[in-house]
Design a protein that fits this description.
Number of helices: 23
Distance between the termini: 75 Å
Helix content: 55-70%
Strand content: under 5%
Largest sheet: none
Length: 379
């Protein structure tokens, strides 16, 4: 490396004394030397190269800096100060490092995105991995085209707040539906459950009518072989012909796939209840999402905005105690400022429902939607 340092000094001397039009060419030679010796460089050597290239690059034009940015963007051990300065340059220079450089850490990206132009946000939105603090800034400041780009990025993580903002933007609904299907961290069955559990129309037409007519526990009818199961007995206002047809087609003695949800562990349920009682909205949503394996943004919608029966079924399907449901209702009331009416009646219905019944309601929503979609396609 001693010879390389001597060459570097000679190049700098030549740059300072030579004609200005030779600057870009000399910078290319320095970059060549940097890449030839990168595996042998100490941190001090890297800093020295970075200092020289930075001085030469920012004494040249934007095209010269753009070429340097392209060359150095994907280098894991690139001079950090140089990368940071290139990332804040005009977009033709900044784009490669914003999109690809592994040297830009979370703090760098948050700082840059907090004051960057829309083109810079767009480049950052295309990085292969983005943490929640970075996406929060981009979602907060980005215009529609930037938001569409980040939604399509399967390597981007979204906080509950960002998901909620995106879900409230009408122009993004098509992109959101497509992005949900592309997410690596969500299975198709989870996607179907997520959409059905948060659809206001579904809960208004199906669940609310169903659950509000549940009788006392000792009056709930038992299932009889060969007949429609207990779902039909609790669904008032629902097309029972659909239920009968689906019941006839269902394999006998074989439970439907993905409806047997595991009971919530005691530790997980305690953490959820403690968080809800303490009024910690974000933590409660995170705990609930982990238990149900559903999206945090959609869990937040289910807990605070959807019809209460949605929350009731979701809690019961995971075998949660009545006290847990009560804690979630109290959190909903405190957070939204809207009183929960008929709490006693809700608790009676919750205690009268079994986990199997809750899971059958979710299963029925899947069956009903399939029938509706087939009928719509046939029309």
């Amino acid at each position: 490396m001693l010879r390389a340092r001597q060459c570097l000094d000679e190049i700098v001397d030549l740059y300072q004394s030579g004609p200005i039009d030779k600057g870009p060419e000399l910078l290319e030679r320095v970059a060549d030397l940097y890449f030839l010796t990168v595996d042998q460089q100490s941190p001090a050597d890297t800093d020295a190269f970075g200092d020289v290239m930075e001085r030469m690059a920012f004494a040249a034009d934007a095209l010269t800096r753009a070429r340097l940015s392209e060359r150095i963007a994907k280098t894991e051990s690139a001079p950090v100060d140089l990368i940071r300065r290139l990332a804040r340059d005009e977009i033709c220079v900044a784009r490669p490092v914003l999109q690809y450089s592994p040297c830009l850490r979370e703090g760098d990206l948050v700082s840059i995105s907090s004051e960057a132009e829309q083109d810079h946000l767009m480049a950052t939105a295309h990085r292969s991995n983005l943490s929640k603090p970075v996406t929060d800034i981009i979602v907060e400041r980005g215009e529609l085209k930037v938001l569409k780009a980040i939604i399509s990025n399967t390597g981007a993580e979204f906080s509950a707040e960002s998901r909620m903002k995106l879900s409230k933007t009408p122009e993004l609904q098509a992109e959101l539906q497509q992005a949900i299907r592309m997410r690596r961290d969500m299975s198709p069955t989870a996607i179907d459950r997520l959409k059905r559990l948060t659809e206001m129309e579904f809960w208004q037409q199906i669940t609310e009518a169903a659950l509000m007519t549940i009788e006392e526990p000792d009056e709930v009818q038992k299932e009889t072989p060969g007949s429609v199961d207990a779902d039909a007995d609790i669904t008032v206002g629902v097309d029972k012909q659909i239920l009968n047809e689906q019941a006839k087609k269902a394999p006998k003695g074989k439970p439907d796939k993905d409806i047997r949800m595991k009971p919530t562990s005691e530790a997980a349920e305690k953490a959820l209840v403690d968080s809800a009682r303490a009024g910690k909205v974000v933590e409660t949503v995170q705990f609930f999402a982990k238990i149900t394996e559903l999206d945090e943004g959609m869990i937040e919608h289910c807990v605070f905005k959807a019809h209460i029966p949605a929350l009731m079924v979701l809690c019961k399907a995971h075998s949660m105690a009545p006290s847990t449901f009560t804690a979630m209702l109290q959190l909903r009331e405190n957070h939204t400022g809207t009183p929960v009416t008929d709490t006693i009646g809700l608790m009676r219905r919750y205690e009268g429902m079994t986990p199997d019944t809750a899971q059958r309601i979710i299963r029925f929503s899947d069956k009903r939607r399939d029938v509706i979609e087939k009928a719509s396609n046939a029309a």
